[in-house]
């Protein structure tokens, strides 16, 4: 069985207090930090880039468990028009996983190879309007697939439950693959995602506004492991 992974999206944090808030999320038992990089072109918003990621990495150094997994994992969601261009820089800044959008590249296979050649895990995201079938040929090459549950670009949007058939199809074909959902995840929507087969849960607004984030993160994990 794939394991539950909870990845708070730092887009919802207070950027003036970023290092502190991110450390707290790990203390709250978050597994990864989800880092949303937006270029104002692929999506109609600009968020953060390399200087922030490398500063955050200095504040939160990589730390390995007995399985040699970095337990301070940075999951970089690249909402950019030229994903090939930033792979080396994300690796240098201290990222661990590089999620590109299927819609943003002409040659996803070549891009996956490039990402892996930089020592990063490779993941592919699809927007709500993109058919899940495009991931079927890539699944075996990927460390993770991301099914967007909102239009990428902004935090705080409503979860699109009608994306769940995509998750179900992917889970059926790839029982061991990390399948991530991103957008609108909270206590009221996690059930849909977990039942469909998602195991990597991104949550921005819900995590960063929770009165008890530790309890919320555990709730997400329990729903996935049910
Ligand atoms: C949207 C981003 C998400 C966003 C999720 O483009 O990819 O990661 O931060 O935020 P919430 O959890 O608030 O919907
Ligand atoms: Zn994201």
UniProtKB/TrEMBL annotation:
Top EC category: isomerase
PANTHER family xrefs: RIBULOSE-5-PHOSPHATE-3-EPIMERASE (PTHR11749)
Keyword presence, Metal-binding: yes
GO biological process assignments: carbohydrate metabolic process; pentose-phosphate shunt
Matches recorded under PROSITE patterns: RIBUL_P_3_EPIMER_1, RIBUL_P_3_EPIMER_2
Pfam families found in the cross-reference section: Ribul_P_3_epim
Family label: Belongs to the ribulose-phosphate 3-epimerase family.
Keywords: Carbohydrate metabolism, Cobalt, Isomerase, Manganese, Metal-binding, Zinc
Coiled-coil residue spans: none
Lineage: Eukaryota, Fungi, Dikarya, Ascomycota, Saccharomycotina
Cofactor: binding details: Binds 1 divalent metal cation per subunit.
GO MF assignments: D-ribulose-phosphate 3-epimerase activity; metal ion binding
Binding of a divalent metal cation, residues: 34, 36, 77, 182
Pathway: Carbohydrate degradation; pentose phosphate pathway; D-xylulose 5-phosphate from D-ribulose 5-phosphate (non-oxidative stage): step 1/1
SUPFAM superfamilies given in the database record: Ribulose-phoshate binding barrel
Binding residues annotated for substrate, in chain numbering: 9, 77, 153-156, 184, 204-205
NCBIfam families: PRK05581.1-4
UniProt-recorded name of the protein: Ribulose-phosphate 3-epimerase
CC cofactor: Fe(2+); Mn(2+); a divalent metal cation; Co(2+)
Active-site residues per Swiss-Prot or TrEMBL entry: 36 (proton acceptor), 182 (proton donor)
Catalytic reactions on record: D-ribulose 5-phosphate = D-xylulose 5-phosphate
Keyword Transmembrane helix among record annotations: no
């Amino acid at each position: 069985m794939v394991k539950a992974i909870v990845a708070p999206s730092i887009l919802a944090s207070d950027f003036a207090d970023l290092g502190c808030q991110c450390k707290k999320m790990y203390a709250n038992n978050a597994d990864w930090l989800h880092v949303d990089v937006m270029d104002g072109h692929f999506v109609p918003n600009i968020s953060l880039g390399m200087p922030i990621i490398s500063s955050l990495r200095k504040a939160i150094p990589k730390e390995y468990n007995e399985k040699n997994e970095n337990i301070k994992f940075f999951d970089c969601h690249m909402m950019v028009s030229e994903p090939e261009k930033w792979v080396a820089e994300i690796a240098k800044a201290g990222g661990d996983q590089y999620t590109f959008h299927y819609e943003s590249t002409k040659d996803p296979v070549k891009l996956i190879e490039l990402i892996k050649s930089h020592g990063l895990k490779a993941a592919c995201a699809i927007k709500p309007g993109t058919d899940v079938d495009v991931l079927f040929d890539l699944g075996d090459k990927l460390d993770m697939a991301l099914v967007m549950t909102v239009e990428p670009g902004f935090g705080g949007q409503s979860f699109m439950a009608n994306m769940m058939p995509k998750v179900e199809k992917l889970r059926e074909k790839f029982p061991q693959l990390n399948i991530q959902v991103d957008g609108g995840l909270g206590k009221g929507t996690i059930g849909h995602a977990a039942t469909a087969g998602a195991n990597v849960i991104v949550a921005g607004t819900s995590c960063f506004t929770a009165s008890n984030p530790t309890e919320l993160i555990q709730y997400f994990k329990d729903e996935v492991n049910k």
